[in-house]
Please model this.
Amino acid sequence: MLLYIIYLIAISAEAMSGAIMGIRREMDLFGICLIGTVAALGGGTVRDILIGHYPLGWVAHPEYLAFTICAAIVTAVAARKMHHFKSAFLIVDALGLVAFTIIGCDIARGFAHFNPFVVVIFGMITGVFGGLLRDVLCNEIPLVLQREVYASVSLVTGGLYVGMLWLNIDASISTLTALGVGFLFRLLAIRYHWTLPKFNDKDIRGFE
Amino acid sequence: MLLYIIYLIAISAEAMSGAIMGIRREMDLFGICLIGTVAALGGGTVRDILIGHYPLGWVAHPEYLAFTICAAIVTAVAARKMHHFKSAFLIVDALGLVAFTIIGCDIARGFAHFNPFVVVIFGMITGVFGGLLRDVLCNEIPLVLQREVYASVSLVTGGLYVGMLWLNIDASISTLTALGVGFLFRLLAIRYHWTLPKFNDKDIRGFE
Amino acid sequence: MLLYIIYLIAISAEAMSGAIMGIRREMDLFGICLIGTVAALGGGTVRDILIGHYPLGWVAHPEYLAFTICAAIVTAVAARKMHHFKSAFLIVDALGLVAFTIIGCDIARGFAHFNPFVVVIFGMITGVFGGLLRDVLCNEIPLVLQREVYASVSLVTGGLYVGMLWLNIDASISTLTALGVGFLFRLLAIRYHWTLPKFNDKDIRGFE
Model:
């Protein structure tokens, strides 16, 4: 239930961030709503297509679409004011990343033959692929592949959650612990500009 | 039956438009055929994957692939002459957009639990996502997100069609009405350069 | 069995080529591993989603993910040395293209209603779409659409394989013949810089 409320808040926040990217690329109202929706619901959609899990979330619950479209329209109208909420947005986005991950793990766990390692991967796909599709549609190299500890937060959250469940720890405790640790990890990563190792080497010779 | 003939003409026209984009980006014959095919059949393919509706149209009817590949090859050979048919192309494209939308709504309606709002969305995905995938493969921000009343025509056509069926109006009458109104709407949008509101603001501050 | 060993070597090689593209685009370790994995397993994943064939290969066999992730990490660490193995890489890549194609045809043939033409298409999708997705994520026009005889090798290999099976030739003989001919075709295409016809014409007038 807590997860569900966080989920609705988080898809609205992701839709807003997608809408802002659309506005910056001179998209019209349709494009803004589509980018916002893809950013918010794309991760879960990719997960369900990779699993073969039908109907998709937004097909069974069209109200999700209503949330993302409204959030995108509000953003389009109030775009000049949105940056005042930057800190609030970063917090909600961190919460969303962690909640998406746990929800994704839960859905993947419903398929009995899934390896725990694969369950964590599906949690990460749920958390990360909405933003990745958003960036592809905006014709950018996805941010998540280049910068910041973002996907790593998702992998740690999912690993912790699945590991605790595997140790037969109570589901509510596992959820709250993973939610709290992942959220804190993401906030610390933002605060202290943590990054993964890079191999900065544009001049490297490839195979082509 | 009328829809089926329009469908075959429309996928050929979409394959031609895709092929021209491929030629402009210096693709080889394989690339031209692939971009043409994706432009023509990509919308229906995305719809069927999102629904979980198998086998896909072009898997059950490989003749669709023959149509799109032939259209792409003809375009490659006759590329210098194609712009003479620009008006004819715009008309066929408008007809295709509307026919794709109605066919997409029909397939989505076959899934009893689908909300009418979701059915209209699937009609729009059928009409619009072929061009969107074409643009992603050509490394462009999809045109449909930035310009013109195109997706809106699809949404109006689908909404009218689904609405009339919901009111128990005869299926043939609903089809012809939606086809006519949507087609006219698209032609007027081209003729008078209608656009959706934009929020032209490259300088807007985002959340990143 | 031979195919399986070739498959494991080939996904490792594709993961390495993907990883190098990621390094060049200044991706972090997560991005490098993801691009490598998409390059290696993306073709089979797209094929299975288009067929509706679940569970996906890497979901049923998570060890594939372990192979691609390890290959990507090794590449990241040893990136400066990788170009010494360029020839070896090209040979393994050619072998992989041919093996992916035959495996893809085999899986598509398991669906009794599939037309042989469609089976060959699915073989090509298996061989080619991993690299295509890799390039989309790296924000490039996919190389396979522009250059070299690559997809054509896949189509010839698949056509030969499916044709021999259709003539009731023994499966092992068909596999080895298609593997050998396709591999040789690819090496000759590299050696003599064979290309498909192009219609180099940036100035061509389109329909937009």
User: Anything to note?
Assistant: The helical segments of chain A are 2-24, 29-51, 57-60, 63-77, 86-109, 116-137, 151-166, 171-191.
